[in-house]
Each structure stands twice: as C-alpha cells, then as structure tokens.
Amino acid sequence: MTVQELVKKVFFVEILKGLALTLSRLFTKPVTRRYPKEKRPAALGFRGLHALVRNPATGEAKCVGCGLCAAICPSRCIYIYTKEGPDHKKVVERYEIEVLRCVYCAFCVEACPFGAVVLTPHYEYSDYSRDNLYMTKEKLLQNWDKYMGEEGYNYFDKFWNPKADHFRTPKEQPKWRKS
Amino acid sequence: MEIFLLKNIDNPESHRIQVYQQTGGYEQLKKALSMKPEDIIQEVKNSGLRGRGGAGFPTGMKWDFASRDPKLPKYLVCNADEGEPGTFKDRPILEKNPHLLIEGMVISAYALKAERGYIYLRGEYPHAKVVLEEAIREAYESGFLGQDILGSGFSFDLSVHQGAGAYICGEETALIDSLEGRRGQPRIKPPFPVNVGAWGMPTVVNNVETLSNLPLIIKIGAEEYKKIGNPECPGPKLYCVSGMVERPGVYELPMGTTLKEIIYEHCGGIKGGGQLKAVIPGGISTPVLTPDKIDVQMDFVSLPKVGSMLGSGAVMVFDESVCLVRVCWRAIRFFEHESCGKCTPCREGVGWMRTVLERIESGFGRKGDIELLQDIASNITGKTFCPLGDGAAGVVLNFIRNFPEEFDYHIQNKKCMVEA
Amino acid sequence: MIELTIDGKRIEAEKGMTILEVAKANNIYIPHLCWDRRLKPYGGCRLCLVEVEGQRKLMAACSTPADNGMVIHTDTPNLQKARRTVLELLLVHHPLDCPVCDKAGECRLQDLAYKYGPSESRFYAERKHDPEATSALIERNPNRCILCGRCVRVCWEHQGVGAINFIGRGFKTKISPAFEETLDCEFCGQCVDACPVGALGAKPYKYRARAWFLESHDSICPYCSVGCTLTLDLREGRILRVRGVDGKGVNDGDLCGKGRFGFDFIYGDTRLKTPLVRKAGELVESTWEETLYYVANRLRDIKRQYGADSIGAIGSARAGIEDNYMLKKFMKEVIGSDNIDTSARLGYAWVLRALNDTYGINQNPIKLDSPIGKEVVLVLESDLTSTHPIFGLKFLEAKNEGTYLMVADPRKTKLARRSSKWIRIKPASGTVFLLGLINYAIREGAHLREEKEIEGIDGLIESVKPYTPEKVSELIGVDTEQFIEAASRFVNAETRLIALTVGAAENQKGYETVLAAANLLMLLGEGPDSLQVPSDYSNTLGAWLSGTRPTEGGKDLYEMLYNPGSLKALYVMGEDPLVTMPDGNTVKKTLEELEFLVVQDIRLSETAKLADVVLPAAAWSEKEGTFINSQGIPQPFPKVVSPQGDSVPDWQILRNLARVMEHDLGITELGKLREELSRIQTDRGQQRWRFSPVEVPSVAQTTTDYPIIMVTGNIMQHSGALSVMSKSLSHVLSDAFVQISPEDAERFGVKDGEFIKISSPLGEVFIKARVSDEIPEGMLFVPVHFAHARVNYLVSHSRLGNAHPTPVKIESTSTATPRR
C-alpha cells in the first residue's frame, strides 16, 4: 500500500466523490417515469393490441376475409369465418384473435392486401379473465375506434408503405370514338 | 389472253345455264367424265395449279392425298367464305358465273370420287346464295348434278351452306366445324382435312377460283395451261383492286402480271393523279409494300422475295391522303372482331394491340407505345393456334417497319400526319 | 417405340403420344392450362409451348405428337418469355380478386403467374359479365374465366351432356348455357373440378373456407356400387366439399353429382340424435342404457314366447361389411336365428341366381373398363349413367373410341342419345328382345361355331322357337328390318358385351332378363366377363359376401316382409322397406302386425316412424367401415367427423346390445371384427356352362282399365331413399314427378306440372306430371326416391323375380277433382 492510497482511504475520498455526484443529481430533472400515473406514448409502428380497420366509406370492417393473416400467423391465433351474404357478396361472419397466443410479429399486418388489420399503440390490456382477451370482430373494431381512430388512417401511409395501392384499379384507358 | 373465268361477265343473263352452255359450258364436264379420275388428278398435278385461297398449296397434291385415303364417303367443299378485307374476287364468279364453279366442282368430285359437295358461302353474300341455288337447280334439271350424271354412273349432290359471318370460317378446319353445325373454331392439324375432315371423313376444301380453273385445265390440257403466266404457278388469276385508283375492280390477268402494270395500266393509275404511298398486295393480312417495290410480279413465288405474299390477290392501294396508322388500326379492329377466342395470344393480344393503336390514332399515344406494340406483336407471331393471330401481328409489324415516321409523328404531335 | 430427347434426357415413348404426355410420364414439367388427360387436345392456352430443334415455330406440347429423334427443350429463355407473355395476356382480363375468390391457393393460374409471370401487367382491362348466382349447385363467374374450354369439353366429350359452350367470339367470348339461361344440367360438377381458375365453383362451398384452411381425407362414396374415391375437404371437423382427384381410386378423378354434392346427407335435418322408444303410442327420447335394456328384454321375451325363428333382421346395403357382419353374428349367436337378409334379395340376388343357373358361378364382379375396346356393346333397358354414373361414362368413352354402342331402351336416356344405335323397345320387353337375339343367333348357326358342346342346347332352341324376328319385332315394337340389322350386328361382332342393372327400384327387368342375356352370350361363346351387371348400392355386394342373408335355411326377405304374421319381431338396420321396396301395402301390413320392431338408422325414416324402438346410428364418415364395390374390391373408408348427437356406429350398437343381453360376441374393437371378416371364404364357384331355358316372361299387358305402363327407376341426382336427405341434391330435385309422353299427355288431358292421380289395382297416388319426350307413348316413368310419393305402393312384388311393370290408370286432377 502506498502513501497515496493510504491517504485516500483515511479521508474517504472515493466516497466523497460518489456523494458529490449524488448531490449534483439533486438539482437535475429525473429521467424515470412514474409509470401508472405517467404514460409513455408508443413509437410509430409499435405492436400493441390488435384492431380491425374500419372502412371510412361504409363504416364496416375493411377485411374481406381472404385469410392471408391466418395463413401466415406463426402462432395460429387468428380465426376467420366467412359466408355468402345478401347480394352474393363475401361477408366476414367472425374474425377472432386469441390475443394471449399472439407473438406480436405483425406478419398479419404485412400480409394483409387491404390494410385491414393493425396492431395499435395500445399496450395496457392485462386482465383477470382470458375471455376478455379473446377478441371478436366487434371488439377489434372498437379497438380501432378507441386506439387508432381518425389518425389511424395515416398510420399505414407513414409506416407500412401501403400494399393496398397495388390492388387499386388503374386509371381507365382513354377511349376514342370518332363519329 | 382469252378471258375465261369472267367470260360473259357483261351479259346480264350470264348466270343462266343457257348462256353458259351457249359459250361452251359443261362441254369440259363431258370430256372429264370420259377420262379416268386418276388421269384428271395427274392432269391437275401436271398443270401446276396452286390454290387460289391464299396459301398457294398445289391443288394436285392435295387431291392426291385425299384420293389415297381409303375411307369413304369423301366430301368436296368449296370455300366461298370470302371474308378477307379487300377481297372480292370470288364474288363475280359466284354471282355472275355460277355454272363455271358448278362444272368445276363436278369435275373435281369425279376426280376425287366424292359424292357430296358443299359450297360454304359467306354469310354476307345473300344475293350469291339466291343465284347459286338457282344455278344448282338448273344444273340438276339439266342432269349435270344428281344421280348418274350424263350417263356416266357417277352421282354428285351439291348444296349451298351459308355461313353466319365469321372470318375464321375461311380457315378450312373451322369451315368444316361450322359445316358440321358446330362453333367455327380451327382444329388441330395434323390430321389434315384431306384425311380427317367433315364428319371424320376425307374432305377436300378448295377455293372458288381454284375450282373454277378446272374446266379450263380440262379444256386446254395441262401443257397449254402451263403457258399462261408464270410457269412456276401458271393460270389465270383474278386480281381485285380497291382503294385510290381510277378504276377499281376485278381483273382477270395471267399469273405474274406486275403490280405496277395492274395499278398503272389496268386500273388507270392513282386517283386524281396522286402519289402512291403504300400497297397491300394480297388482302389485309399480307405485308404492306412501299412504292419502290411495286415492280414485282404478282404471283406465289415472286412476292415472297420482296417480303410479302400473294394471298388472295386483293390489291389495296393507298395514296398520300391516307393515314396509315388509321389503316393499321382499322385492320386490327377487324382482326379483333374476328378472333374466334380459342387461343390466348390472339384473343387477348389482338385486343390489346387494338387499344394501343386506338390511343395512338386518337392522339393519346405515349412514349414507348411503338416498342410495346412491337413486343406484343412479336410475341403473338408463331404462338397462335391458326394463322389469324399471325396475320394480325404481321400487319402491325409491317406497318411499323415500313412507315415508322407516321407512328412517331402521331405520338409526338398527337395528330395525324395527313390531316396536318 | 420411339426415342426422343427432352431437356437432354433420352426418353423412350409409345408412338402416338403427344410431347406433353411423354414429358408427364417422365416427370418433366411443362406448364399447361387447357390440357386434360381425359380430353382431346385443344391447344388453346398456348402455355405448353416447347422448342423442337429444327422447327422454326414453337410447338404446343399438348397437341404435337412425339416423333422419333425429336430434340425438345422445355425451359429456355425464349420459352420463358413466351410463357410470361401468355400469362400477361391472360391476366389482362382476369380480375385480381384473389382475396375473395374461393380458388385462391389452389388456382392454376395463380401458381403459374407466380412461377413464370410478370408481377405487373402493362395493360389493364375489365370484363363485365354478370356472375350467375341463381344456379342450384354450380356457381359461374364468367369474369374470372380464362376460356381454356376444359369445362365445355369435359361436359361434352367426357360427360356426354353439352350443357355449356362458348358464346360470342374474340375477347367477348364467354362460357354459358344455351341462350345465356340459368345452368340447368345434371349437376355432376365435373366442370367445377376441371376449371383451373375460380370461374366455376361449387355453391355449397362458396365463401366457406380458404383452400389452406382445409384438411383432406380420402373416403369412399356411400351411394352407388362403383365405389368412387372421394376426397373430402374438411375444416374444423365439418365436410365442406368433395373433390375427385385425378389418379385416385377406381374412378380416377371422375365423380357424379351424388358423390360430389350429396355428402351433406350426414348434416340432414332428420338425423337421429338420441334413441327413441315408443311410449303410449308416441316415440319419445330416451337414453342408451334404458333403451338397450328395453330392447334386450323384449327380444328375450319374444324369443322365449315364440321361438328364435320368429325374430328376423334386415341388413343394410349402405352400411359397411363390419356392421352387416355384426348383425349376422348377433342374430346367429345371440338370437339364434338365420332370418336375415338385405335388399339385394330384390335385385342382385336374382342376378347371381341367373348366373349360377347358366355359367355355374356364384359371383361375377364387373370390370369398370370392360366396355372399352369391345366391338359391340348392348345396354339393355338400363340408365347406367344415372344409376352407376362413372361406370356409365366408360360406355361413352368406349363409344368415342369406336365401339358400336347399342341401346335398347324405351327411354331416351343419355346413353340412348349418345348411342350408335338406339332401339326404342316397348317398356319391359328387354327379355323378349334378348330371346329374339338368341333365336336369330341360332338361325345364323352361332351355336354350331363353338366346338364345345354346352348342356341344354336343345331345350334352348326349343324354347326360343316362337321368337322369330317378325314376332319379336312386333312384341318390342320396332321394325323387323331394324331388329334384324341390330341382331346381325350383335351376333356377328368379334367381341361383345351386355350391360344392364337389376335393382330393387326397377320393375322392368329381373331374373329372366339376366338368364336370357347369359344364354345368349354362352351361345356366342362369351364368358361371364361379357355380362356386366353391377350391384345396386355401395355395399350391396359386401353385405351379400359378408353373409347377410339366410345361409342355413332361414327366412329370406320375401318371407319376412311379404308374409304378414310370419315374424313377431324385426330388427331393421339402415333400410327403409316402406319406401324402397315394392308393394308398400303388404310391407306396411307386415310391419304393423309385428309385436316388436327395432329400427336402427341414421334418420327418422318412414319405417322408423312405425318402430317401437329407434336407435340412432353413426353415418358414413362418422365411423370407419368397408364397402365392397361391384368390382368386388373391398375399400375401407375412414372416420373423419364426429358422430351427431348420441349416435353410435352400427356394429357398436349391436355389440352393446349383445353385452346387455349377457352374450360376449368376442368383438371389442373394429380390428377384431375385421380379423374375423378376413377369415370368411367366399366361393366364386367353378364355371360349368349350361343353358337354362327362359320361361316365357309376361310382357306387360295393358287392359282397358289400366291402359298405360308404369316403370319405376332411379334418376341421376338421387340414389335410394338416402340422397333425399342431402340439401344440395334436393336443391336440384326435391319433389317426386312422373314423366309422361306428350302423346299420352294429350290423350289423358294432362298438363305439364299438374298433379295427376295414378292408380293401380294396389292403390293410388298423386304425383306431379312432367311432359317429356324422353318417354315413349304408353309408358310412365316414376323415380322411387321420394317417400311422400309412395310410388312403391302401386308396384306388385314377385317371388319369381320376373319383370313386373305395372299397368296403371292416370287421371288429370283438374278433371278428376275439379277445384273451385
């Protein structure tokens, strides 16, 4: 042990240094959040609770029941049941997600050709009952209204580079008629 | 040269059997019935007669194939479905000289040992139907048709079957389908109709003009016949000229008359003394020719050398006042309308070409449209079931190749070169 | 043999094969859309283009015959470009509605576009046809159609119908029934399987599931005795659709409407879910325990009181051989009675007896492709394309390949329409026709050609003496010339075949007919292979072979059902005698006089409504089992869905009942049962030919009271009384009808669609009339499938198995009971 070390030990230099840092922090703003009271907004593209996109034109779900989300889902937690509706259109009778089995990979969102399913920024949905975490079509549409709403439509444009446009009907070819 | 096919054409009663017989009609039939069928086929082979419908297949060979097939009965079908735009060469025969065709058919049937014949008549020739049926009735009455013709023991029945207005039925297998009462769509070849044709039996399908040449061959013999026109494909040929000439119409000339002679001598030159811009030498599906190539002989061997075909011999003349993009578009519109819908490239591709041409012609052309057209057309060529698609693609490719500046002008200036 | 090179591989092939067939046989992939194994090459899609060295043009592999020394390339940059263009062109008009199209995931166009195609088209256009949504079972969406023509050709060339064709031309072409009407055909659905895209779909499957949600199981069709392999597509334990898969099963991918759409009988409304016991005259729901004890006690009581011989059982031609064997075992070991039989007694048993009396054999399984390659085929008064559709197709195939197809039938059946020669004989005169042929053959000296002397030839010659061509042609109602022409064709052929059906539902053929046919064939030196008589239902032959018939002198079906009072208790398993068997009055009387009737069925049938106890059985697909088809092939089918309600497989019900009756049958599981079954020896019998003269059959005689002859039979969309449970099949046809000729309709004042009263000495029924030129004058045709029509009440039964067409009287209801 050298003299220098001995002096440092006797006069608690290290401890004082540490306390000085502590003292300095007393005068700065804290970085932690008091979570239940203060909530952190999720970043764009956060994978939270599922929702079904509402078609602004009809007010119904955009989903056509193509089943690609269910096909790609690695945990097989999406169930879709379709049927023939009035005027012989395809209607989605039930669209159900078993949230507890979901691994939040968002493959379903990527696979959807119509941008009809989405993971919302909402992440606080723990519950005492499993049943409440079995999302039906109605619940999923409510999720959209609650957690995405109007601004949700921008979400796809901003984040997901919409694939839906690829399926949009191109402009009609110019027609020419001569009398 | 003596006019043969269009003999008596100026006589308003030329379709009557009396008029026909007065000028030596049905004499050749008597001569033919005294020959052996095999000899007639040999004579036709020697004469070098080639089919006048467009492909120019040697008639003697076709008959030879059919007569070697042992299956009976055999059928003889006259292809009078003259649907190609610009073609009207058979019409004078059908309407003005039907007995020549009937005589030719009876001779052919005798040579082929066919006992049943049909004239598959174009749906748009209602007058020809009336004339033909009357002529057939007259021939039956005079004993040139029916049982035991002229006491030779040979029987032949003939009737007219009118098509329903489909261009594709000019293709022989589609024609046979239509004749059988089905939807006219081309069949897979082989087997060829000479072996498996109407109702599965050997069937010879010949053009009106081809069959009308038969009496001449019998009359003057193969050696004399060979002396008419180009020795490689001899005989009289009907050229039907339309478009911007002073005297459009049907001309019977020896095979191998030059295009220049037809336009400038027989037809009296370009209408109003205008400048020649383009000529289609053999009906709409044959490649277009530029004015520098009109010195060509109009026959089956010379035209291919300058990149075109004789086809049916339908000459269409365009002068300076004609917009060739519009001609091209109009032709493709015809092909689109007449595509039977069987094979994909023709059904979808021709429609696609029509739309692109339509937008070029109407001033909505885009950059790259010409390349697009060429790409589609080259992808149709050689991939369709029957020659209809090839024909359509060929029209587009040839017009673009020969007159690229017109297309460019249309796209760049959004208007027509001619109107400007 | 020829040798050619494909993609550098040297390949040997048969002459006459196309390039595509050679490539397929050697596992070389050439894309194609319009080609189908069963059809003539069409060459429309132009996807199968290949490069042949020395050929300037690309050749279509599907329609170019392979030739010796050809060098073929199937995958070059040039070809890929051609394929890409073709696909691009196809996609021009193909709507990209894959997300809602049911074909997505198994769509050939989708696969090919993924493999070769461009990801985007340089061109876009839209077709604007109206999808058809009104048809009963087949949904057409012309917008998705790529005009490959497979549906059109399968319908015409293979199925012999021609319900659809191309309309219009160019790219306005669409596929449609005549005059763009609603599709109204036999609904075999072959076009649905043939369609490579989603333009044709099965209506019951529409929008029900995506292709990747489905799991597939192969099963055997429960309807007719052809025994087609069905590929069931299930989602979450429910059968959604049935497909025929190329290369699978005896049918090789072909299916009829019953097989394809009729599977939903297991979801029928009338399915039994719990045991029912009659209490105070009403059938009330009960438990298995209570019911089985009740049945056991009653059976024991009756056995004690009247003896074991007073108890009988009827097996099922539609239950597996396991179930039928178990019933036999139960009757033999627990009850001690040999009174057991099936509906085969009314039809197929006569066939076997006739074969035994002539050829000396006990079994004669058919061969499905027997008509192919024969010179002359005679189909006698049988609508094979309705009763055994896939067997029937082989006759059309043979015809297409050059066989002379002769059909002797009063009805203008599909085979008659497509035949080379249709002889419109009088109803039920088939036997006379055959006797006439025998007479003609003897005149021609056919019996002298064979060196082998067959026993009984003199008797035969004597017995057919009266049947001179003149007499026969008068009896069967055709020109003598026509008859002689047909006879000469048949007798002088190199190879020949006679096909007919003899079924419980049909009343114009019987023992005599088969006997006459066998005599004729023996006379011409043909073995039993030339006589093709298929058994009726999926397991008619199986039930027979597994011993569900009296083997030790017990009572047969006739003695049990047509002899009121002979039995005291009857155990009916999976059969509805009140609907499917002739002379309903007697059957009903017999059943009502029973002391105890147990019906074990999948539904509350007409017979079950009379029963004291009704036991719910698991249906086909809800249990494992085995059918023996008419070719004699045992074909097991799996359990794929769970039984409805409390229903239990038939053999388990019987095992449980035996346990309740304190008898151990030694069968605990299906494996044991099958092991025991496999030990059954069936005796095919040695061929020992002898002629058996045919008794003069009674050609149906009309009287002034009963002036018209009624013939019963099967129709295309139904089979027995089972298929009426299927909602899909009922969409096509759910009501009974009687076909009547236009001449008779006028004569009796019957209008199309009105109810008419038909009466025979045995009773009267009211049925809707359909005026149809399929029927000749003097004949009525009535299908037997519909319980409410009670057609079988008019038909008499016969102990001798003779043809028994029924003379009846008809009255128009508008004149008989005028309504105001």
Low-confidence stretches of chain C: none
Specify the structural class of chain A: alpha+beta
Tell how many strands the DSSP assignment of chain A holds.
Answer: 5
Largest contact between protein chains?
B-C, 29 and 36 residues
Strand content of chain A: 5-15%
Order of helices and strands of chain A: HHEHEEHEEHH
User: What share of the residues of chain A lie within helices?
Assistant: 25-40%
Overall form of chain A = elongated
Q: What is the CATH class designation of the largest domain in chain A?
A: Alpha Beta
The CATH architecture of the largest domain in chain C can be given as 3-Layer(aba) Sandwich
Q: Which CATH architecture of the largest domain in chain A would you pick?
A: 2-Layer Sandwich
Which CATH class of the largest domain in chain C applies here?
Alpha Beta
Give the helix/strand layout.
The complex is a heterotrimer of chains A (179), B (420) and C (820).
Chain A: H1 3-10, H2 13-25, E1 50-52, H3 68-72, E2 78-84, E3 90-98, H4 107-111, E4 117-119, E5 134-135, H5 137-148, H6 152-160
Antiparallel strand pairs in A: 1-4, 2-3, 3-5
Chain B: H1 17-22, H2 27-34, H3 37-47, H4 59-68, E1 75-80, H5 90-96, H6 98-112, E2 116-121, H7 126-141, E3 157-162, H8 172-179, E4 203-207, H9 208-212, H10 214-226, E5 236-243, E6 249-254, H11 259-266, E7 276-280, E8 314-319, H12 324-338, H13 344-361, H14 369-380, H15 387-402, H16 404-413
Parallel strand pairs in B: 1-2, 1-4, 2-3, 5-8
Antiparallel strand pairs in B: 5-6, 7-8
Helix pairs in contact in B: 2-6, 2-10, 3-4, 3-6, 3-10, 5-7, 12-13, 12-15, 13-14, 13-15, 14-15, 15-16
Chain C: E1 2-6, E2 9-13, H1 19-25, E3 49-52, E4 59-60, E5 71-73, H2 77-93, H3 108-115, E6 138-140, H4 150-158, E7 164-167, E8 174-177, H5 190-194, E9 200-202, E10 215-220, E11 229-235, E12 238-243, H6 257-261, E13 276-279, E14 282-285, H7 288-306, E15 311-314, H8 321-335, E16 340-341, H9 348-358, E17 376-380, H10 384-387, H11 389-400, E18 404-408, H12 414-417, E19 421-423, H13 430-443, H14 446-449, H15 457-464, H16 469-476, H17 480-491, E20 496-499, H18 511-523, E21 531-532, H19 540-545, H20 557-561, E22 569-573, H21 577-580, H22 584-593, E23 596-601, H23 606-610, E24 613-616, E25 625-628, E26 634-637, H24 650-660, H25 670-678, E27 708-713, H26 727-732, E28 737-740, H27 742-747, E29 755-760, E30 763-771, E31 779-783, E32 806-812, H28 813-816
Helix pairs in contact in C: 7-24, 8-24, 8-25, 9-18, 13-16, 13-17, 13-18, 16-17
